[in-house]
Amino acid sequence: MRFLRLLRIYISASLSVQLAYRANFLAAMLSSLANLSTGLLGVLLFYSRPEITQLGGWNLEGALMVVGFFTLTEGVISVWLRPNLAQLSEGIRTGTLDFLLLKPVDAQFQLSSRNLNLLRLPDMLLGLGLIVWAGAALGTVTLAGALLAALLYFSALAMVYAIWFMLNTSAFWLVNVQNVSELFQGVFSAGRYPLQALPLWIRPVLTFVIPVAFITTIPAQALRGELGTAALFSPLVALILLILCRLIWLRALGSYTSASS
């Protein structure tokens, strides 16, 4: 309950600051629409020719589900992960991380939740709306499939958080990790398309090395009622990554001497 109260305070403070300039919300909405349009354009180009009805075994509605999950995840990253974790390396470099460590609240929780970019919420809403629309157009989505897709997607979000946090935790040793985070963002962009539509050689990499498939393709497969074997490992992979993330964080704190030492 203590963490929930703190989270409510963080959200309220972020909302108060960002709504002070309401024109920013309109600009953010236009930016979200532009991002979604870019993702849709890439997929729709494949289906623009009458003779093409399948893309790696995916029809248009199924491919749009994948775009929806990708857009939703980009929104989560923009609202939650990037505003918080991008400041970790700056805190290490300038020594402001020390103030966080002195507070009687778990430092990882504070680093993961104190800043929220609520202006990017339209990304999440547009992504969720596209998933619902594509699912309705597909006409084969069941309640069990929707619940399973939700479970797999929350497992995927846990993976994204753990990977992003571990990349930024490397700032304890590398100091500047901006390029590493940008590299992950570039690889993640491949999740805009169904895994089966990508070249055969890259599929194992995006499944077992960098679990992009777990984030977009596998939840969409669950909604379509086509659950692959890899999906059964999604919660387990998420749990392993979260444990590894915590261990690396504790190891990093053990070697931290602050910028003023």
Verbal overview:
It is a single chain. This protein has 261 residues and is an all-alpha fold. It is 72% helix and 0% strand. It has one domain. It contains 14 helices and no strands. The longest helix has 27 residues, at 143-169. The protein is globular and about 60 Å long. The model has no long low-confidence stretch (mean pLDDT 83).
Helix content bin: over 70%
Total helical segments: 14
Percent strand equals under 5%
Mean pLDDT: 83
Secondary-structure element pattern, one letter each: HHHHHHHHHHHHHH
- DSSP, total strands: 0
Question: What is the end-to-end distance?
Answer: 35 Å
Segments where pLDDT lies below 50 for 5+ residues?
Answer: none
Major β-sheet, in short? none
Q: Return the structural class.
A: mainly alpha
General shape: globular
Q: Domain count, please report it.
A: 1
The value of Rg in angstroms is: 20 Å
Short synopsis of the structure:
Helices cover 72% and strands 0% of the residues. It has 14 helices and no strands.
Describe the secondary-structure layout.
Layout: H1 2-18, H2 23-46, H3 60-85, H4 88-94, H5 97-102, H6 107-113, H7 121-138, H8 143-169, H9 171-174, H10 178-188, H11 203-209, H12 212-215, H13 217-224, H14 234-254
Helix pairs in contact: 2-3, 2-7, 3-7, 3-8, 3-13, 8-13, 8-14
